[in-house]
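About this split. The held-out portion is used to measure sequence recovery: a designer receives only the structure tokens and must propose an amino acid at every position. Recovery is the fraction of positions where the proposal matches the reference. Here is one held-out target exactly as it appears in the evaluation file.
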């Protein structure tokens, strides 16, 4: 597996999806941000849910997605609802 799998919340499937949409390094993920990365994944996998968005944000912040602050989850949920 690649370097993305060293991040919290990034397993084999999410790493493969990130690679498929052109995000292959931690730097590229950080530059894209969780929202853009999720939109790219959503373009190839319509089943991409809010939990995947939380996972991507957690990976960028270096924490498990369950530990994201509630205000961050609320902002991501609003984004998700506007883009699902």
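Reference sequence for scoring:
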């Amino acid at each position: 597996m690649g370097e993305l799998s060293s991040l919290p919340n990034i397993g084999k499937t999410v790493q493969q999806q990130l690679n498929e949409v052109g995000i292959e390094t931690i730097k590229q993920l950080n530059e894209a941000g969780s929202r853009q990365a999720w939109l790219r994944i959503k373009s190839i996998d319509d089943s991409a849910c809010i939990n995947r968005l939380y996972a991507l944000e957690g990976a960028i912040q270096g924490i498990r997605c369950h530990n994201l602050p509630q205000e961050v989850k609320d902002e991501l949920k609003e984004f998700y609802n506007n883009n699902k």
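Annotator remark: The CA atoms of residues 8 and 63 lie 6 Å apart.
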